[in-house]
User: What shape does this take?
Amino acid sequence: MTTALIEIRNVSRHYTRGVDEIHALDNVSLDLQAGRFVAFMGPSGSGKSTLLNLVSGIDRPSSGEVIVAGARLNDLSEDELAHWRARHVGLIFQFFNLMPVLNALDNVALPLLLTDLDKKERLRRAETALRVVGLGHRLDHYPRTLSGGEQQRVAIARAVVTDPDLIVADEPTGDLDARNAEEILTLLRQLKNEFGKTIVMVTHDPRALRFVDAALHLDKGVLLEGEAAARADEAIRLAAGGGLVGALRTA
Amino acid sequence: MKYFGLIRANLGRNKLRTALTGGAIMLAVALVCILLTMPAGMNALLDTISSNTRISVHNKAGIVYSMPYAFTRKVRAIDGVAAAVGMTWYGGAYEEAGRVTFPNFAVEAEYVGDVYPDYKIDPQQLADFKRYRDGAIVGRQTMKKYGWKIGDRITLKSTVWPADLDVRIVGEITNERAPMLWLNREYLDEALKARGGSGLGIVGVVWVRAADPARVNAIMRTADELSRNSEAETASETEKSFFSNFFGSLQGFVTIILIVTGLVALCIVFIAANTASMAVRERSGELAVMKAMGFTRGIIFGTLFTEAVLLSSVAGFLGVGLTLGLTKLLSAAAGWNDTLGPLGAFIVTVPVIVEGIFLSLFVGMLAGFVPSWGAARKPVVQILHEVF
Assistant: This one.
């Protein structure tokens, strides 16, 4: 029996915004095995980003239990969570979020500052990561001189350079054109296939279904299961293949 | 140390702003150092004009009150006194009617040279001063100011005594900053008697030179003992203390300098704090990403705080350097331009350098603390929500 890398047990996340109490997640449970490439999908406000934050140790649940890579994240303090993230999680953001004052090599080497590696080794590993994402020729380029697709590749290299157990990506194709989006999804798939990385991605992009092992659908803070999940999945596949009309017909 | 590259890169993010903030801190530190140099400079000035063996014996009620002239002889007889000279304010005005433009005193010509051997007055000139009743010895500063030379005759109109005197300059105090004029006490005494008065029976201050610095305190005690219960009780003090009290108004000036210094320091704290706040605000997205990556609050705080302190410290060092350069320039200029006067004495001392550097460190720490702490303490999820 394979141990799940991510175990989520009856997790709810509530918070207040002004006088309103927001139920971002409601009693969600799921297990994800290591080496899987999974997408969290759903409309805006469905709770997918909240779930991603919980899985990556950025946020903590109001109730329930989040266990990732053997660590019960509920028990960790803010600083302990930071240390845990540095060791176990690589992050990819929609808007790349590279440091504009650092070149590509130094951007990728940034998370390695949190390790005990010396500078030479940090730069060597960063260079290797950049070569893996196909940017070995852009080491000393600053973000402003790179295209959107290239910047996202640098961000992916930054996410994998520490060899984390888990890569989380929040809308990694959201700010890219179709060609670059396909390339980024292909790259993420390669990381899963060739390096056995576990990848959890939040996306609205229907093309993602062609690359992921599974899509988990959320709606109003609830994880859809059974027939509801199948219908949501079908709607997205239709949107990807047949456009909006087909998707609306199925929904 | 491994974060230094990141700190350096962030300092270079907006070079113009970094340069302007650093420049403001540099100039402010230089200004503070120059202001701090002034009290030390005054002290140095007092040291240069004071001897550690000279004592002033004057009326306890204040230097404007006199003592019987006979008291001078009693002081001179105290054990350990090498020489003593009585000095009385003449208050002579030259040219500008009614206004005294340099200090002038009636002194005992036969003793004054022994009390002021450090003034290096030519022995022949001192001999002439003793020989000629109408002789006068004048400080070089006043000689230069009026273009006088040895042998010139000048007329002084006293603002104190009913006796205007024609004096002949027979000697010069070679110190460039010496302004005083000494005239012969007997000459004034005779002039007063000639006008029907009783002569100069009083003395303003008795200046004493102790044979040994170790005897100074004992001599001061004895002198004051001698005058106890008399009509003119005395208060003796060292020359440095005397000048320090004489220029008492300078203390107020020093206080103002220190207040201005404090205000300038406060201003640069605000400037640096504003820069640090802007730097943190415009970087909130990057800080959120760094925190999400696993950079702890301590590291975030440390890098931001170090950045502020580093900028301030480098600017502080440059400010101290600027002060050193400026004061050296002033000192050199004072050598050939008398109008700069005592500015030449305002030399940057090691304590002033240390104070300037510590000020810049303090400014950096104070300015960097609040924004750095604010950026560090926010939970990562909150900052991500705010930014994205």
